[in-house]
Amino acid sequence: MKTYRMILCLLALALRVSAAEAVPVTFQLDWKPTAQFAGLLMARERGWYREAGIDLTLRGIPPDEGVVSNVVHHPHWIGSIESGVLLKERSSGRPVKAIGTMLQGTPIGLISLKSAGIHQLKDLIGKRIGVHADGNEAVKYVLHHAGIGAGRIEVEVVGYDLTPLLNGRYAAVQGYSIDEGVALRQAGHDIDILHLHDIGYAAYGQVYFTSESFLKSDAPLLRRFLEVSRRGWATAIQDPDAIATMVTATVPGTDRRHERGTVEALIPMLTREGGPGSMGRMKRQTWKQAVSDFNRLPSTTSRVKVSDIATFDLQP
Q1: Taking the CB of residue 150, how many other CB atoms lie within 10 A of it?
Q2: 1 vs 197: CA distance, rounded Å
Q3: From the centroid of its chain, how far is CA 305?
Q4: In the chain, count of helices (H) and strands (E)?
Q5: Where along the chain do the CATH 3.40.190.10 domains lie?
Q6: Top-level CATH class of 108-198?
Q7: What is the residue-wise DSSP string for 7-67?
Q8: What are phi and psi of 121, to 5 degrees?
């Protein structure tokens, strides 16, 4: 933890600017403001964004809106989303770019009961799995990468009810290790999780992105946002209890034990591509692989270049 404290001190010194005229910025989450966004919650709570000249609003996503379209159509908006979804949106013509990432991997995985004996992707051949609509692209990636053709695994789009997994309708369901995985384990279920980033899916989770117009007009502000967010994450993981208390006090229906478990499950993913100094950073090589995989998908009609989808100039 000494390394984390050193990072925090350096960031604090670098980020103290006048907050008298803080610029309003909206951060469009792809979910509710839960512990999945612990770093941002901590930084906002401590007033660090405002110290850096940013008046940050964290906005949950209503069910009838899209994260990417909201960011594109509003000035001074930033968002977060899975890198695979962002690639699809960029391919369709959305003028968006990744500027950094919360997670250096993806919490998306195929969750199964341990009794099902699902230890690798080929164990699912001939079986049925459930996937969420927003995870469909990621599952396509890994099946294509593994050479498992359409129909060899029956895929159904499902909601977030885990009962069909528990009653045996599905051999596995696609979900988040930091959400459904935490819930199942805390309920006493013995489960296995095949993380997609371990079975061929080059991806980042909760990628920070914005519109090309915001990037062009105020890159220094976006750089400060990334620096403050990194400081928030480095602090949040040292105090999961504080994040859990914060979330349950402000978000109806949340459970303190679950939120604390989410923070603990996030920690290994924050620095998966390096040590504490790598937090918040993306690697060009990871994006190169992600773009290559995306461009080879049969469903891809418009190819993307790394320079289209990501900038590495703002990273702390």
Answers
A1: 10
A2: 26
A3: 21
A4: 14, 10
A5: 2-105+203-309, 108-198
A6: alpha beta
A7: HHHHHHHHH----TTPEEEEEE-SS-SSGGGHHHHHHHHTTHHHHTTEEEEEEPPPTTS-H
A8: -60, -35
Residue 257's φ and ψ, nearest 5 degrees, are -65, -40
Q: What are the tokens at 7?
A: 């990072």
Residue 73 exposure: Cα atoms within 13 Å on the Cβ side = 6
Question: Residue 168: exposed, middle, or buried by beta-carbon count in 10 A (0-12, 13-18, 19+)?
Answer: exposed
Q: How many percent of the chain have pLDDT more than 90? A: 86
- The distance in angstroms from the start CA to the end CA of the chain is 19
Tokens 């933890």 sit on residue? 1
Joined together, the tokens standing for residue 158 give 């499902």
Q: How far apart are CA 108 and CA 196, in angstroms?
A: 6
Q: Just give the CATH number of 2-105+203-309.
A: 3.40.190.10
At 248, the amino acid letter reads T
Q: Which residues contact 314 (CB under 8 A, 6 or more apart)?
A: 99, 100, 219, 222, 223, 226
Write the single-letter amino acid at 192: D
Q: Which amino acid is at 116?
A: A
CB atoms near residue 268 (< 10 Å): 12
- pTM for this structure? 0.90
What tens-digit pLDDT sequence spans the chain (316 residues)?
556 566 556 555 555 555 458 999 999 999 999 999 999 999 999 999 999 999 999 999 999 999 999 999 999 999 999 999 999 999 999 999 999 999 999 999 999 999 999 999 999 999 999 999 878 878 988 998 899 998 899 999 999 999 999 999 999 999 999 999 999 999 999 999 999 999 999 999 999 999 999 999 999 999 999 999 999 999 999 999 999 999 999 999 999 999 999 999 999 999 999 988 999 999 999 999 999 989 988 889 999 999 999 999 999 8
- CA–CA dist 171, 116 (Å, integer): 7
